[in-house]
Amino acid sequence: MATPNEPPRLPKFFEGSLPQEHSTKWAKCWEDKWTPWDRGGPSMALHDLLKENPNGVIPLPSETSPKTCLVPGCGRGYDVVLLSLFGYDVYGLDVSSQALSAAKENAEKALTEGLYETEGGKRGAINWTCQDFFAEDWKDVQGTFDLIFDYTFFCALPPPLRPAWAKKMKTLLSPGGRLVCLEFPSDKKPSEPGPPWAAPPGEYLAYLSNPGAQPRTDEYGGVIAEEMESLAPGGLKRLVHIKPGRTHASGMQDGRVQDYISVWAHANE
């Protein structure tokens, strides 16, 4: 049981907040230096996916073909650093300026002390941008991205924002680009409060297959699988859907991986 001086659990802290108020609540967590979701390091599942690159599904950067990448809700920027070491020019986006200050410190420490190995031919550039993911126009960021990585961002959004999330992802993804989602928590029930909200594979499939549309949901906001629509011409198609060999402890249960990792592309490719 929490002590009187202990911050409330995330679901309790967000209870009763309107979707449009959540950005302010996340920023408040950073102001209070309360980040119980922090993973403490980069995603092992993402590292392994890029390293193994099954069937060459991921467009990796090279000296003659640079690639850009976006990590929305980047927090302390662990995955931003990891992706830069694979050669991507990465943008870490967060709504909290305190989060990005922590990310800059973390990145400087990681790169100065050589905490991670450079996987690509050379390290890509790192950029930080403080703004709302859903804003119509972003300052200091233009164009689309060759790779987008979503981990604990989709599940941090209340279900009413998921159609807008999918539409924005489609808009931000370059032709030939890939959206990589580390699906968490895949085993949580929609009836359980969030954040994190339940994020089983069917949720990603329903929203990304028809970006911007609202699929039929139950009383808790969970997608009704039997009534899911097929892939729309303007949607994103799933190219890869696997359980990673390694993931964070929060995505494990009784020693077994519960997370999934999925790779998405524009339906017309």
UniProtKB/TrEMBL annotation:
Signal peptide: none annotated. Keywords: Methyltransferase, Phosphoprotein, S-adenosyl-L-methionine, Transferase. One of its GO terms (molecular function) is S-adenosylmethionine-dependent methyltransferase activity. Gene3D superfamilies: Vaccinia Virus protein VP39. It holds the Pfam family TPMT. It comes from the Eukaryota. GO terms for biological process: methylation. This is Methyltransferase domain-containing protein. It comes from Xylaria multiplex. The lineage of its organism: Eukaryota, Fungi, Dikarya, Ascomycota, Pezizomycotina.
